[in-house]
Specification:
The complex is a heterodimer. Chain A contains no helices and eleven strands. Chain A is mainly beta. The termini of chain A are far apart. In chain B, strands 2, 4, 5, 6, 9, 10 and 11 form a seven-stranded mixed β-sheet that branches. Chain B has a four-stranded antiparallel β-sheet with strand order 1-3-8-7, with no helix packed on it. The chains are: A mainly beta, B mainly beta. At the A-B interface, β4, β5, β9 and β10 of A face β6, β9 and β10 of B.
Chain lengths: ~110, ~110
């Protein structure tokens, strides 16, 4: 099965900062992606990491540690519209084949006033 | 608009029937992915094509099949439909198979009654 783990749900307050973690196991690695998905809509790309370190993009930042199989997405200055599911996805080798783009189950974030 | 087009947007059909979902990738993208997303579930990887050839397979049922045509559009065929096949089916495309951002279509919502 898939080897990507992330928390199922998180809550946070408007204006605050939240960190969503993701751990993964693959036999090969071509990059880690974060997507945002509102209910019933298509996932939209947020960030991409292939090397260790932090990538910053406005209010969103993503970190990767390949040796630990670990990433996090950091959302700053939370807004109500940030309430959505956040999907961690890994491009790489998984059981049964290589070069798959596999998604975690997603973390449902609820932002409260 | 991601540039990925999926048709139809909605489909209602009876158990035992067969349907075909269509996906046109972004201009220039050679790789097409198909995902299934049941209610409140994560994206389940079905299959991936690159330039007309199957490159990776997920937990795709034998009742399901797909292909990518010379013009790079792809079709997902679902046969002997069951109630449990009701889901959102997403197509995504990317430039190649390794570690590049995938762009998602708006999905086809399939309801089997």
């Amino acid at each position: 099965g898939q080897n990507i783990d992330q928390p199922t749900e998180m809550t946070a307050t408007e204006g605050a900062i939240v960190q969503i973690n993701c751990t993964y196991q693959t036999s090969g690695f071509n990059g880690l992606f974060w997507y945002q998905q509102h209910a019933g809509e298509a996932p939209t790309f947020l960030s991409y990491n292939v090397l260790d370190g932090l990538e910053e993009k406005g209010r969103f930042s993503s970190f990767l540690s390949r040796s630990k199989g670990y990433s996090y997405l950091l959302l700053k200055e939370l807004q109500m519209k940030d309430s959505a599911s956040y999907l961690c996805a890994v491009s790489g080798g998984f059981s049964g084949g290589y070069n798959k783009l596999i998604f975690g189950a997603g973390t449902r974030l609820a932002v409260h006033p | 608009d991601s540039g990925v087009t999926q048709t139809p947007k909605h489909l209602i059909t009876a158990t035992g029937q067969r349907v075909t979902l269509r996906c046109s990738p972004r201009s220039g993208d050679l790789s097409v992915y198909w995902y299934q997303q049941s209610l409140d579930q994560g994206l389940q990887f079905l299959i991936q094509y690159y330039n007309g050839e199957e490159r990776a397979k997920g937990n795709i049922l034998e009742r399901f099949s797909a292909q990518q045509f010379p013009d790079l559009h792809s079709e997902l065929n679902l046969s002997s439909l069951e109630l449990g096949d009701s889901a959102l089916y997403f197509c995504a495309s990317s430039v190649d198979v390794r570690g590049t951002e995938a762009f998602f279509g708006q999905g086809t919502r399939l309801t089997v009654v």
